[in-house]
Amino acid sequence: MAKCFNRLLLSALIGGVLLGSATSTTHAAETTAAAATQQSLSVIDLSELQLDGAAALVLTFNTPLDSKQDFASRVQITDEKSGKVDGGWELAQHGKTLRFRHPEPSRKLTINVDAGLKAADGTTLSTPFSQTLTTRDIQPMVGFASRGSLLPLR
Q: What is the model's pLDDT at position 52?
């Protein structure tokens, strides 16, 4: 009987330790997730991608941005040859990327993001971001077999 009681007590003790460690692991995961949400805003990536069959510059952030701010005043594009580039940034539906559609091909552009750009959670970009990239050249999409032969209608 004593052996059975000792085994039962040992099983309860091991079960309690396992449950306690699982609870502390869950609490640690929740604490880590909460700390991750309070990170300051930062730029993860800047790249040129194809969106809907056309080139676009895409700025990716670690957290969703505040959609009510004026992105044109916080994010500027400067062309090495012609200076400031006109156009607007659009916020993606999930809020983590800004897109600038139809950049000029074969241009060396500098993208500057001002400190103070706001995230949806109220945090801001603590340091300015600046990166230079060269947009891709447009590749021919259609080839012609001849050099301009005209075909009669009738």
A: 87
What does the angle CA 71 – CA 77 – CA 81 come to, to the nearest 5 degrees? 160
Give domain limits for the chain: 1-35, 43-134
Distance CA 147, CA 150 (A): 10
Cα separation, 50 vs 58, whole angstroms = 10
In CATH, the number for domain 43-134 is: 2.60.40.1220
pLDDT tens, 13-33?
565 555 554 444 445 545 444
Strands 54-61 and 97-101: antiparallel
Residue % of the chain over a pLDDT of 90: 56
